[in-house]
Every structure is written in structure tokens, then in C-alpha cells.
């Protein structure tokens, strides 16, 4: 009996030893795999172009969402506050996933590791980029109402490329092909001129439509005469302290007009939050050009934040990883947006009614769309920067093709350029064709950043 027990114990001991030996043989491979798990960084041109295309779709769609809310009467201050929340959330998600998953390296630390490093010069550049982007986005929110979604996006994007791409080319040590890049920049400049011409022609078409209709616009209200010649006042009653916007009964009974007609323009004017009929054309274009200048500066500032071309960091301090830089970039963008929009609640501009923070909290109309727009813009900007770090920020400006997407949404959702003149259509097609050529040429100039 003792012999059998001893034999059993030896067998079990041998079995345990064999299991330990197998486990020891397996552990090195597991350890090696965990060490091989590195931070995800796009380094090839193909991955960079894929990110640019995704950014193009996202960045071209979110303006259409905000425009839709403005045309339905939601105050832009309310919409932009919602948008800012999820825009920051997108940057946090990118930092905690792409920037934290995997092991960092001495020259490429993880997100949390970089938060405690002495890299404030680069952080300052990233935050400066966020400030100018926030000012540009805030300006375009008003410009869409005056100039239209399509023209606004074309002009601002073209100015961004003309100024920003030129700056990025020299900051990136000329890794992009100049003989291809700068002809593309020239095409964008032509697109700016065509965009201005489209807006002027379309504004003239609208004036002709309104002059031939039985409608009258004065100040911030419009009216349509009924069959008896009596004016149907459609100025809206406002009760923004309670977060409610009311309309007159006669306006609610008004039949839906055909897209592109004078009656359609009047109905749109009565519903939207920003009143633009009869306003100065140069006011809208002035806002657009200011936004374009702001947009042209945020990408070069981000470039300086991640690559430190001006050698502002102390020796031995690694450059900001694109995910960390984007986090600081988005934080400053969020702070400026919230501060300015809360100020505009109580001190509105462009004839908007006064509101309050309490009214904003109560205004749930379209809030989910505003939150979606923030996510689209946040991930779009993040993908643009990830692609730019790999293929050069000058080439990444090809995502400024977003007006192609925005124009599609403008025509499909908002009826822009319906029933316009042949001159307007010719200018519109010419503008879009020039823009397509410019984007193709710009992407063809893509280079490869040496690590």
C-alpha cells in the first residue's frame, strides 16, 4: 500500500514538473508579445491617405448638421455649446486609446507619461492652434447663414490651403513635392475667386425672386400677403428664458413652398435663428475671410507642437506625440468656445435674441444632432493630424476638400441654388471642378516624414 502511494505521488510530481516546464516555455512568447505591443502610429502613405479620406467625410458633414439646426430656429450659441462637449470627448477618446494602448518608447512616450513632462513650449503651440480653430468654427457658424454652406466651406478651405499649406511645406522641411504642391495651391486660389462669384450671383438671383413676389422684408421680420392683400406677419415671438420659441398661428397654417422660390426663402427666413435677407453681402464675406485666416493657422501651429522645428524644447525632452498634442489642442478649443458662447448668450451679435444659460439647459431641440456634429468634427481633426504626421501636414490639407461633401449636403438638404440662373450654375460647376483638380494635385504631392 505504501509502495502504491509513493508511486502515485511520484507520478503526480512528475506531471506537475512537466506542466511547469511547458508553462515556462510558453511564458517567454507571452512576454515577448506584450513587449511587442507598441503605440499605434501611422507611418505609411497608404494609411495616411485612408485617414485623410475618413477625415474628409467627417469634416464635410458636421457643418451641414449645424446648418440644419440653425435653419430650424435653434440659436447657434446653444448648438455650439453642445457641439463643444463632444468635440472634446473625441480628443479624450483618441488619447486614451491610440495614445495609451501599447508600450511607449523613450522618444515616443504614452499619453499619461507625457502629461508630467516639461514640454510646455509644444503645449503652447498646440493650444494656440486650438484657439484659432475655435474662432474659425465659431465664425463659420454665422457665415453659413449669410453666405450659404457651400460657398462658405469653399472659400475658407481655399484660404486655409493657400496660407496654411505654404507654411506647412517649409515647416516640414519640404518633404512634399513643390512642383506639384504649389500648382495645387494656385488652383485653390482660383476656387476662392469662383466661390465669391457664386455667392454674388446667387444673392442677385434671390433679390430678383423676392422683388417679383408678394412678400416684404423689413428689419428682422418678413411677411407674405394673402389672397386679400393683407400682410401675414410671421415675426416669431421669443421666450428664450424658458427655452421656448413660438410662431403665430397664421405662420403655422402656411403651406410649404417649393424649394428655390421666393416664398421658400421667406419661410426659411422666418424659421431660422439668424435673419439674413436684406443684409449686406460684404458682411457675410467678411466673416468668411476672417474664418479662413483662422483656419489657415491651426495646422501649422499643430505641426510646430508635434515636430518642434523651432527647437523650443529642452534637450532630451521628447516631442509631443500627435495624440497628446491633439488633447491639449482640443482643451483650448473647448475653453474658448464655451467662454465666447456663454458671453454671446447674454450679449448676442448679428441681431440674435438674448438668451441665458438656463435657457440653453432647457433647449433639447436637436441637441443629439449637435452632439453628433461635435464627435464628427473631433474625430475628423484627429484623423487629419494622424495622417499629417505620417505624410506631411501640407499634404494632409487635402482634407480641405470637405466643401465637396458640404456642397452635396447643401444642395440635398437645404435646396441651395435651386431655381437659380444659368450664370450661377456655370460658376458653381466651375468652382467645384477647380476644387476637385486642386485636391487631386495636393494629394499627389504627398511625401514621407523620416522618423
From TrEMBL:
Entry's localization field: Membrane
An example Gene Ontology CC term for this record: membrane
UniProt-recorded Gene Ontology molecular function terms: allantoin:proton symporter activity; ATP binding; uracil:monoatomic cation symporter activity
Keywords: ATP-binding, Membrane, Nucleotide-binding, Transmembrane, Transmembrane helix, Transport
Pfam family, one: Ureide_permease
Main location: membrane
Residue ranges crossing the lipid bilayer per the database entry: 47-68, 80-99, 119-136, 143-168, 180-199, 281-302, 322-346, 367-386, 392-413, 425-445
Record InterPro entries: UPS_plant, Ureide_permease
Topology of the protein relative to the lipid bilayer: Multi-pass membrane protein
Family: Belongs to the plant ureide permease (TC 2.A.7.19) family.
Protein name (Swiss-Prot/TrEMBL): Ureide permease 1-like
Upper lineage: Eukaryota, Viridiplantae, Streptophyta, Embryophyta, Tracheophyta
Amino acid at each position: 500500500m505504501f509502495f502504491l502511494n509513493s508511486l502515485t505521488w511520484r507520478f503526480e510530481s512528475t506531471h506537475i514538473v512537466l506542466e511547469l516546464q511547458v508553462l515556462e516555455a510558453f511564458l517567454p512568447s507571452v512576454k515577448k508579445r506584450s513587449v511587442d505591443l507598441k503605440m499605434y502610429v501611422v507611418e505609411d502613405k497608404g494609411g495616411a491617405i485612408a485617414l485623410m479620406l475618413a477625415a474628409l467625410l467627417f469634416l464635410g458633414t458636421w457643418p451641414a448638421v449645424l446648418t440644419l439646426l440653425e435653419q430650424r430656429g435653434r440659436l447657434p450659441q446653444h448648438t455650439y455649446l453642445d457641439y463643444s462637449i463632444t468635440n472634446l470627448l473625441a480628443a479624450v477618446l483618441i488619447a486614451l486609446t491610440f495614445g495609451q494602448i501599447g508600450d511607449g518608447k523613450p522618444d515616443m512616450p504614452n499619453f499619461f507619461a507625457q502629461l508630467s513632462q516639461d514640454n510646455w513650449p509644444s503645449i503652447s503651440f498646440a493650444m494656440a492652434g486650438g484657439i484659432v480653430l475655435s474662432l474659425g468654427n465659431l465664425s463659420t457658424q454665422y457665415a453659413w447663414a449669410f453666405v450659404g454652406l457651400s460657398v462658405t466651406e469653399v472659400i475658407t478651405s481655399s484660404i486655409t490651403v493657400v496660407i496654411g499649406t505654404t507654411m506647412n511645406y517649409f515647416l516640414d522641411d519640404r518633404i512634399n513635392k513643390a512642383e506639384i504642391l504649389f500648382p495645387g495651391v494656385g488652383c485653390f486660389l482660383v476656387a476662392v475667386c469662383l466661390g465669391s462669384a457664386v455667392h454674388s450671383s446667387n444673392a442677385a438671383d434671390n433679390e430678383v425672386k423676392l422683388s417679383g413676389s408678394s412678400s416684404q422684408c423689413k428689419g428682422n421680420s418678413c411677411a407674405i400677403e394673402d389672397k386679400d392683400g393683407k400682410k401675414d406677419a410671421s415675426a416669431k415671438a421669443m421666450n428664450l428664458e424658458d427655452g421656448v420659441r413660438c410662431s403665430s398661428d397664421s405662420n403655422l397654417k402656411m403651406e410649404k413652398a417649393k424649394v428655390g422660390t421666393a416664398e421658400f426663402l421667406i419661410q426659411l427666413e422666418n424659421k431660422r435663428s439668424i435673419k439674413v435677407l436684406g443684409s449686406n453681402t460684404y458682411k457675410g464675406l467678411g466673416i468668411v475671410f476672417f474664418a479662413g485666416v483662422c483656419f489657415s493657422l491651426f495646422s501649422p501651429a499643430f505641426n510646430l507642437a508635434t515636430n518642434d522645428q523651432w527647437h523650443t524644447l529642452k534637450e532630451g525632452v521628447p516631442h509631443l506625440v500627435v495624440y497628446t498634442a491633439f488633447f491639449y489642442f482640443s482643451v483650448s478649443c473647448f475653453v474658448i468656445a464655451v467662454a465666447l458662447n456663454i458671453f454671446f448668450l447674454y450679449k448676442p451679435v448679428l441681431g440674435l435674441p438674448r438668451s441665458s444659460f438656463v435657457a440653453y439647459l432647457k433647449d433639447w431641440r436637436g441637441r443629439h444632432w449637435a452632439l453628433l456634429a461635435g464627435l464628427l468634427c473631433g474625430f475628423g481633426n484627429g484623423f487629419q493630424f494622424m495622417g499629417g504626421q505620417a505624410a506631411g501636414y501640407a499634404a494632409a490639407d487635402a482634407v480641405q476638400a470637405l466643401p465637396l461633401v458640404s456642397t452635396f449636403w447643401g444642395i440635398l438638404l437645404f435646396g441651395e441654388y435651386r431655381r437659380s440662373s444659368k450664370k450661377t450654375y456655370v460658376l458653381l460647376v466651375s468652382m467645384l471642378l477647380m476644387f476637385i483638380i486642386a485636391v487631386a494635385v495636393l494629394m499627389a504631392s504627398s511625401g514621407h516624414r523620416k522618423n
